[in-house]
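Folding Problem: From Residues to Backbone Shape
Fields: amino acid sequence; protein backbone structure tokens
RECORD BEGINS BELOW THIS LINE
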Amino acid sequence: NKIIITSTSQFPGSWIAFNIQKNARATLSYVDMKYGGCCGGGIIENEGKLLLDNVDILDAESNGILNSSGTIKANKIKLHHNGAHGLFSQGGGLVVITDSEIYSNGEFGIKNLGLPIEAINNWWGDPSGPFHPILNPMGQGDEVSDGVNFIPWKQ
């Protein structure tokens, strides 16, 4: 069974965030997080280390995950139906997401302003893969920004 982190209000932004501070480490396995993210993300990574396995992050008011410059390693996660981005990375730090599902987010599946992100072998909501204006202009899945290595993707 999964651990469920949610709110009785059942609307996006009902609770602030799961916040990983500088030099902290967090491992989340078999967790569903719903209706958070009123202040940046359902999970906010601030220069710590975050390991995710079988985690479902959905219905955040803004981003599913906000990375300021920490390390994120994620496997078999779902980032979907978040108000802005599934993942928004705005700083340095290693980010690797594999064998996951990233779809139906408000703006980007992954928006990156930092170091390159490894996001291969993921499902983007459509067999054609994520939309990228140069690398995959025919993609019908969630959009990815520059600095995201998404090839190959799951069809």
